[in-house]
Amino acid sequence: MQNPLLAEFPTPFETLPFDQINTADFLPALEAEIEKTKAEIDQITQNQAQPSFDNTIEAMEKSGKKLGIISGALFNLNSAETSKALQEVTQKAAPILTALQNDIRLNEVLFQRIQKVHDLKDTAALTPEQKTLLEKEYKGFVRNGALLPEEKKEKLRAIDQELAQLGLRFGENVLEDSNAFSLQITDKKELSGLPQSALAMAKQMAEQKSLEGWLFTLDYPSYVPFMTYADNRGLRKKMCLAFGKRGFQQNDHNNETVIQSIVQLRYQRANLLGYDSHAAFVLEERMAKDESTVREFLNDLRNKAYPKAKKEWEEINAFGQQELGYKTIEKWDTAYISEKIKQVRFAFNEEELKPYFALPKVTTGLFKIVERLYGLSFKIRKDIPVYHPDVQAYEVTKDGAFHAVLYADFHPREGKRNGAWMTSYRAQNHEQRPHVSIVCNFSTPTGDTPALLTFNEVTTLFHEFGHALHGMLANTHYGSLSGTSVFWDFVELPSQVLENWCYQAEALALFAQHYKTGALIPAHYIEKIIKAGQFQQGLQTLRQLSFGYLDLSWHSENSIDIKGVKAHEKTIMAPFQFTEDHEENCMSTAFSHIFQGGYAAGYYSYKWAEVLDADAFELFLEKGIFDQDTATAFHDHVLSKGGTEHPMTLYKKFRGQAPNPKALLKRAGLVD
Q1: Bridge partner list, 409
Q2: What's the per-residue H, E or C state across 271-329?
Q3: CA–CA separation, 578 vs 626, rounded Å?
Q4: So what's the pLDDT on residue 368?
Q5: Alpha-carbon span 614 to 600, nearest angstrom
Q6: CA–CA distance, 451 with 360 (Å, rounded to integer)
Q7: Rounded to whole angstroms, how far apart are CA atoms 327 and 310?
Q8: Residue 616: which of 647, 570, 593 has the closest Cα?
C-alpha cells in the first residue's frame, strides 16, 4: 500500500488526509522527500547556464514543496496531538531535517550561484518582491554559515543537530510534568468560591478518569479559575507550586541541563558566525535591529509602568491583609485578591460574563466581523479530514471563490501542549491558497452547556484569529514571503490589533449573546469590560516586560557565564516581583516560547507590536471600526503582503506615518 503522505491527496483542496496517515508513515515519507529535494538542489547546482534569479533563486523556492508539507504536519501534530510514538518519530526526524537544511545552506556551489545573482541585483529587472526574496536567500545563507571555512561548517552542523533535538526534548518534558499532576477533591467544602462552570468541568474530568469528586489539572482552563476563585488558600498553594515545578523537578523531565545546553550552543553558534551573542544574531533581522534598542524600549516602558504597578501592588497587599487576614501575600494569592478587588471596584465578575460568551456564538460573531472587514465567509466542511474529533475544518471563501482552509482546535487534552497558537499546514503562493490552523486550550463544554469562555479566552481567540487572517489573506507570489513570514517583532501586529474589537459595543453586539436567552450583553457589562481593560495594567505590563528581560538575559553576551538556571532567573526577575520567590519553582524550565518556540531573543516583540497595534487601531477608532477604506488599507498593505517589503515600509503605507508609542501608553492608562 502506498504511503498516503507521498501520494496525491484525494481530499477537498488537497488537504492532508489525516484519516489515512499513521505515525509510521512519517519517517519513510520524509526520507523519500529529502532525497527528492537533494536531487532538485543538484539540478540547480549542475545547471551550466549563467546563474539568474529564475534558474537559481526561483528554482530553490520551488524545491522541497512536499517535504515542507510533510515535516510541517509532523511538527504541528507533535504540538497539538502527540503521543510517545509520535515524539520518537519527531526526535528522529529533527536531526535528518536539520542535516538537509545544513547541506543546502552550506553548499558552496549553490551559494556561489546565489552570490552571483546577488552581485548583479541592481542591474537585473526584478520586482520589489523578487529583490526581497533574493536578499532573504543571500542573508539566509550567510547567516547560516556559507562564508565559514569547512571545519567551522562542520561544527555548525553539529550544533544545529543538537539544538533541534534539545528544543523537542524541552517541550516533551514540560508536557510530561503537566500531565503528571492532578488535584482530586472529594470534599465539597474545599471547593468554596469556585464558580459552577469550573466545578462542572472538574466533575466531568473526574468522571472521564473514573474518579470520585472533582479533578483539577495544570491545563489553563482548569488552573486559572482555580487560582482566581478557590477560597482554600492551601489548595491554591498546592496548585501554584505544582505549576511552577514543571521542568524543575528531580525526575527524568528536568529541563535545567537542557536550558544550559541550548543557551551554550546558541552562544557558540552566534560566535561561529561572527556575532557577540545569540541576541545580536537574531535582532539583526528584526525591526529593533540590536539589543541596545530593545533594552531602551523595555526600560522606557518599565519606567512608565513601575509607579502604577507599585500602587496596584500596595492595593493588593492592603486588601489581602485587611480584608482576608493574610499576613504575607504570596504568589498563589495575587489572582484571587485581584479578582476580589475587581469585583468591589467595578462590581465586575468574569463569571457573570461567561454566559454571554458561548464559544459557538463567539466564533460565529468573529466570522461576521471578519466578513464585514475583509469579505471572508466560513463554511464547515465535514468531508475535510481532521487529526482529532475536536477539530473543525472550514472552507473559507472570498467573493464566492475558495480562499483558504481553516482548522480550529479549541479544547485541552493530554496530547496537546498548553497555550494558544496559529500554524500553517500549507503556505500560500501564486499557485495555491493556504491551509492554516488555530490551536487553543479553552474551557470545555459540560453536559448540555456549550463551552462558555472567559473574556480573556475571547481575546485569545481573536488574537490567534488575527494570526490566521495574516495567513488566510496572504497574496504574495512566493510562499517563503507569505503570511506570517515576516520580522518576528511585526508578526504580532495582525493578532493584537484584532483583539481591540472585543472591547467595542458595535462588535460585541455581533457575538455577545446569552447562550440560553439570546439576549445581547447589557450595556453596563460593556462599560465594565472597557473599564476593567485598564485594571492592573501596570502589573500586567511589568510582568510582560520581565519575561522580555529574562529572555534577553539568556541570549545576551554574558549568557555564557550563567552557572545555574534558578539562581540566574531569580536575579533577573527580582526587580519585577512583589511576592517572595520560592526555591522549588522556576519559570525558565517551562518557558516554551524561547526554548521550544521561535521567540528566543524576541519575547519583547509582544510589547513592541502593542505599540503598532494601538497606533493602528486609533485610525479605526477615528474612521469607524468597520470603515471599509481603513480595513482595505490594512488588508492591502499589511495582511496580504507578508514579508514582501520591510515591515516599517508596509506600516507607513497603511498608516501614513511611523507608529506613535503614546497610543499604547494611553490605552493602558499609563499616561493621561
Answers
A1: 439
A2: HHCCCCCHHHHHHCCCCCCCHHHHHHHHHHHHHHHHHHHHHHHHHHHHHHHHHHCCCCC
A3: 42
A4: 98
A5: 24
A6: 8
A7: 19
A8: 647
Residue 465: name the closest of 534, 399, 368, 356 by CA. Answer: 368
CA 330/CA 227 separation, integer angstroms: 12
CA 419 to CA 440: how far, in whole Å? 6
Phi and psi for 520 in degrees, rounded to 5?
-65, 150
Contact 496, 617 (CB under 8 A): no
3-state secondary structure 609-661: HHHHHHHHHHHHHHHCCCCHHHHHHHHHHHHCCCCCCCHHHHHHHHHCCCCCC
Cα(533)–Cα(353) distance, integer angstroms: 14
| pLDDT tens digits along 133-181 | 999 999 999 999 999 999 999 999 999 999 999 999 999 999 999 999 9
Pairwise CA distance, residues 254 & 247, whole Å: 5
12-105+107-147: what fold? Answer: Glutathione S-transferase Yfyf (Class Pi); Chain A, domain 2 (1.20.1050)
Sign of the four-CA dihedral 231, 234, 237, 238: negative
- Structural element, H or E, at residue 196: helix 196-208
**Could you tell me where the beta strands, DSSP code E, fall in 102-198?**
182-185
> Are 502 and 158 a contacting pair, CB within 8 Å?
no
Distance, CA of 346 to CA of 87 (rounded, Å): 47
Tell me what pLDDT residue 531 has: 85
User: What is the residue extent of each domain of the chain?
Assistant: 12-105+107-147, 181-244
Catalytic residue among 81, 350, 464, 618: 464
- Which segments in the chain show pLDDT lower than 70? none
Q: Are 425 and 436 in contact (CB under 8 A)?
A: yes
pLDDT at res. 661 = 87
Q: What is the pLDDT of residue 349?
A: 81
Q: Classify the C-alpha dihedral 113-118-121-123 as positive or negative.
A: negative
- pLDDT at 123 (0 to 100): 87
> Which residues lie closer than 8 Å to 651 by C-beta, 6 or more apart?
490, 493, 612, 616, 637, 638, 658, 659
DSSP symbol at 581? P
Q: What is the pLDDT of residues 346-370, one digit of tens each?
A: 887 888 899 999 999 999 999 999 9
Looking at residue 351, its pLDDT comes to: 85
C-alpha span between 562 and 161 (Å, rounded): 23
Cross-strand pairs, 214: 185
* Amino acid residing at 672: D
Query: Which class for 79: exposed (0-12), middle (13-18), buried (19 or more C-beta within 10 A)?
Result: buried
- Supply the pTM of this predicted model: 0.93
Q: Using the CB atoms, write b or e for 61-75: b if 16+ within 10 Å.
A: bebbbebbbbbbbbe
Helical pair 256-272 and 565-573, crossing angle rounded to 10 deg: 80
Residue 296: active-site member: no
Q: Check residue 208 and give its pLDDT.
A: 93
Taking the C-alpha atoms of residue 318 and residue 659, their distance in angstroms, rounded to an integer, is 39
8 Å CB contact between 416 and 170:
no
